Amino acid sequence: MARRLPSLNALRAFEATGRRGRMTLAAEELNVTHSAVSRQIQHLEAQLGVPLFEGPKNRLRLTDAGTTLLAGLGIAFDQIDASVRAVADTNEGLLDVSCPGTFTMRWLIPRLYRFHASYPEIEVRLTASAKAVDFGRDGFDVAIRVGDPPWPDGAEVIPLFPEQIGPVLATSLSNERDGSCDGLPALHTRTRPDAWSDWVSGSGRTISAAPRVDYEHFYFMLEAARSGLGVSVAPWPYVVDDIRAGRLAAPFGFIDSGHHYVALRRAKRNRKVSLFCNWLEKEAEDFQSSHPMPG
Length: 295
What we know:
Layout: H1 8-20, H2 23-30, H3 34-48, E1 53-54, E2 61-62, H4 64-87, E3 93-99, H5 101-118, E4 122-128, E5 142-147, E6 155-170, H6 171-176, E7 185-189, H7 195-203, E8 210-215, H8 218-226, E9 231-235, H9 236-244, E10 248-249, E11 255-266, H10 271-290
Parallel strand pairs: 3-4, 3-5, 7-8, 7-9
Antiparallel strand pairs: 1-2, 5-11, 6-9, 6-10, 6-11
Helix pairs in contact: 1-2, 1-3, 1-4, 2-3, 5-9
C-alpha cells in the first residue's frame, strides 16, 4: 500500500517550530519567511484534522497531538540524516573516529588542529574506545588501535608506527636517585596489565620495585608518574612531550613492544575518510622523523 504522508516541507516547518519554540526561529533555520512556515503548519493541521499548537503567536505551546508528532519526527529526521550521511561521498560533514582515550589526549588531539585547518568543513567526532572493532556493528568511520594482526574482516589497515615502551618517572625523582628505580612503587593500569611483564621480558632488565599500585585508566597512571608517585611503563608516543619538556625521565630508554598502531577503516571508499587517513599517515611519518626515540 502506498504511503500517504503529508508534505515533507510541512513536516520540516512543524518540526523546526516545535524544536525551536518560535516560527521566526524556524524560518531562519529553514531559510524561508515567517509566513511560509505559518502556511505550512496550517496546511498540516488541516490535513491531520487536529491542532498542533495552541496559545498566542508569540508564546506557542505544543498540543498533545503536537508533542506526539514532534517526538516521532525528531527520530525520523535523525534516521534520514544518518542514512543520507551513510551513502553520501563528500568532503564535508561528520566523521566518527574511535581511538584509545590516552592516545586521543596525548597524541591525536594536540595534532588535530592541523586537520581542522586544512579541512574546516569536516567535523571530527572522537569516541574513546580500545575495544575490538566491528564495522558491521559500530557506527564510526575510522578506528585507531594498538595491537597485532589479525585485524577485523572487511577493514582496510593503515599502519602508523610501531610501539615502543619503557619505564618513566618524574625527572625530579630520577635525579634524586641518580636514575635508579629500585624500591619505587610500580604503577600499573588495568587497561594494560601486561605492560611491566612485556618490558621485563623484552629488555632483560629487572627493577626491584615496591608493591604495585593499580590505576583504572592509563591517563591516571601517567599523571601519578609525573607527580612522583612511582615508576610506570608507558609507550613513547604518550610521554614524548613530557620527556622533551623535562617533566618525565626514561632512565632505561625504550624497546619495541611488538605491537603496532594502525588506523582501521571501512573497505568502502569515502572521501572524508580518505582525507583523514591520508592526513593521519602523514602525521605518523612526521612524528617518527621529528621525535626520534631515545635508546
